[in-house]
Write a structure and sequence with these properties.
- The structure is a single chain.
- The chain is α/β, with parallel strands linked by helices.
- Helix 7 packs parallel to helix 11 and helix 9 packs parallel to helix 10.
- The protein contains 11 helices and 9 strands.
- It has a 6-stranded parallel β-sheet, sandwiched between helices.
- The two termini are about 20 Å apart.
- Helices cover about 40% and strands about 20% of the residues.
- Bound molecules: 2'-O-acetyl adenosine-5-diphosphoribose (OAD).
- The site of 2'-O-acetyl adenosine-5-diphosphoribose has 26 residues, from helix 2.
Length: about 240
Amino acid sequence: MSPPLPALEEARTLLAGARRVCVLTGAGISAESGVPTFRGKEGLWRNHDPMTLATPRAFAEDPQLVWEWYDWRRSLVLACTPNEGHRALVRLEERVERCDIVTQNVDGLHRAAGSTRVHELHGQLFVNRCTACDRQREVRSSGLDGLPHCSACGVLERPGVVWFGEALPHEPWAAASQAMTTSDLVLVVGTSALVYPAAQFVPTARAADVPIIVVNPERTDHVALADHHLAGPAGQVLPLLID
Ligand code: OAD
């Protein structure tokens, strides 16, 4: 599936005139790398209940189950590499004055591809965080040998991701908020527009008169706010848009 040529050409012209670009990404950009999305036909939330796996209460009630689920996700992502969509965004960064990537993804694939201004709103899959002292450490492997504990204070660690009902981390949130309204263009790639507060960035950019391009095979609520909707998979559409 490729977007119609006139829409693509108009979007290319819009992007060519932009010096500062802000890109909001969701699970769809990693789909072609083999990372499952959350809400599609094969989506993670089709077969797993987020309330028993991705909330502070779920972790308090059954840390073993929650850790096993995140460990399984780590094993999935360890087998994945960045795709043409991630790589096209790296080339975009090389070409423009500033390219901020605001991502809801925890897979780290934007950084693995080489993007440098990445704001990870929902945390990182490959980080353990102490539930007592907040100390964080990177863990680039999968396989649980009991529940992980903090090397500094000995208390149980949790996955370094944001769960439902938790506030987003301040630094990426502040950087994302600024980038959304001070860019010449917002590019929205592979998100269902259903999860707040991240989904709110697009109406905010619209209110600030920042042009918006949506790349998604489906029509999401963001499409009604966009100047252009390029319907197709990110790994195919982003190279056509950017190169
Ligand atoms: P979703 O799974 O809700 O949506 C994925 C979107 O990607 C859908 O709109 C698809 O149409 C689109 N898509 C699928 N394949 C694509 C492709 N090859 N190219 C481009 N788009 C494609 O994922 P998110 O919107 O990222 O939060 O979900 C947001 C948050 O909900 C996640 O960060 C996660 C989840 O619960 C937490 O865990 C806190």
